[in-house]
Each structure stands twice: as C-alpha cells, then as structure tokens.
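User: Second chain of the day. Same drill as before.
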Amino acid sequence: MFRQRRKRFALAAAWVYPVGAVISFGVASVFSIRRILAAVLFLFSTCHLLLAQFPIQTQRPPEDTTPSDVRAMVSSYCRLDYEGLGLDPNAWTKFKPLVWWTEPPKYSQIDVVARYVVDPDPVARNNKYVVSVHYRLLGTYDLTNGYVPEPEGTMQNVDFLVSSENTEWRIGDAENTFPHPSRAAMLKWLTQQIASTPDAAVKDRLQKAMTQVQAQPASPFVK
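Assistant: Same format as last time:
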C-alpha cells in the first residue's frame, strides 16, 4: 500500500515537472516577445522623430535653364537672319521679342553665308552672357561697290551679348549686326531689287552680284 502511494507520487511528480517547465518556458517566451515588440516600437518612434526633425530631400533643386534659353534665343535670331528676314523691313516684328534695340539696325553691307554654328555653351560675363556664332562666309555685298566673294572655307566669328532686365533676357548687342542671309535668300533679295530699281547703274551692280553668287556652290545648312 505504501509502495503504491510512493509510485503514484513519483508519477505525479514526473508529470508535473515537464508541465511546469513548459509553463515556465511559455511565460519566458511571452516576456521575450514583449521585450522585442517594445524594442521595435522604440526604434520606430526614434526613426519617426529623426525624420520629423531632419526631413529627407525627395526633390532636386530646380535646374538653371538660363544658359540654354540664352543660346536658343541667339539661335532663333540667327535662323531668322539666315532666312533673309534681316533684309525685309516688314519682318522686324519677328526680331523684336529677341533684342533690346527698338528699330532695325542700319547696314551698308550684306554678309552672305553658307551656314552657321552657334556655340553650345554661353559664357557668363558680368551678369551677362556671350554667345559666339561661327559663319561660313561666302562673300560680302557692299551697297555701293557691289559683291566681293570670299575664298572657300572663310569663317566669320560674331559674339552676341545677351543681357537681362527685370529677369527678361534679350540680345543687347552684337559685334556685327549686318544681315547674314543664306545664298538662296540673297538670290531672292537680288531678284526683287533688280525688278524694282529704275537706276541702270544699280541694276547692273545687282545683276553682277547675282551672277557671282550663283557661281558659288551652296552648302547645306548646319544649325
């Protein structure tokens, strides 16, 4: 009888021990999970506080487009001039938004060009920009003396000075404001002048100039 009770007690003790161990492990696990969650919440709160004090820049600062805008302005001016609009007084309104001067420049000669190239990078100078343009010069027509062709490959460099007034940029000056028409535009102008002038000497000068320009090979336009 006494032995049976000892066996029962031993069995009960053997059964209680693992159950107690499991319960102890479970309690320890719960505390561990709580500690982990508390640490995660602490880290999350700390990161949120840091982001609030030192926000991350997600947008880039606006890029300064002034140099590219200045170059585009000079390029537009040269394009109009190349098309022969500098020879047409009625086309002045197309130049006005690009320049600061208030009337068409007066000229005594015309520089006939095969093509031109605008420098890609304007040079900043004293709160202004200098844009260089390189012309392939075919010849010059003097309004008094007639046309003089240039040797093949002759280049003419012209600097345009672009300035601003109240944040608006325009061409304020240029080394050479003579018209720079293309060969085709010059031939068109000569034809119109020959048809309209009554002066025999002027007509003869214009006709000679047309013959000289026609004899020169045309080059493709390069922007």
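The radius of gyration is 42 Å.

User: Great, on to the next one.
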